[in-house]
Amino acid sequence: MAQNRPPAEETFGQRIKRRRRELGLTQRQVAAKLGIDFTYLSKLENDRGEPPGDKTIRNIAVLLVDDEEELLALAGKVPEQLRDRAQREVAFARLVRRLPDMSETELRDISRRLKIGPPKP
Fold it and tell me: What's the Cα-to-Cα distance from 115 to each of 30, 54, 110, rounded to whole Å?
């Protein structure tokens, strides 16, 4: 099945709802496979409440054949190692604080230098 192009400003909930529908799955089917209540999945898809933990988000990504890192980012999850390093190293903390103000061009340049690929539009 061909994937539709995601909206530019897609939320975590919108993303998982779109992917679930693209795969022809019901909320009950997805919830059962994840071991969560379908009403909780409905809340997630409607961006109500806190996103689940990292492990559940990774399981959602696998089930919905989606990118784990993108889903984690959409859910606002920051890796624990990132927080720990920012607390230990001032230079790293300064870089992290600067990232939100960087232009797309600057972010793409950093991505290329780190060989992680450009951020998706």
Answer: 34, 24, 8
Query: Among candidates 34, 55, 41, which has minimal Cα distance to 12?
Result: 41
Q: Return the closest-CA partner of residue 58 out of 50, 70, 40.
A: 70
Give residue-wise pLDDT tens across range 74-92.
Answer: 999 988 888 899 999 999 8
pTM for the complete prediction? 0.69
CATH number of 12-74: 3.30.420.10, 3.40.109.10, 1.10.260.40, 3.30.413.10?
A: 1.10.260.40
Who contacts 11 (Cβ-Cβ below 8 Å, separation ≥6)? 47, 74
CA 19 to chain centre: 13
Residues 6 or more apart in contact with residue 61 via CB below 8 angstroms: 67, 68, 71
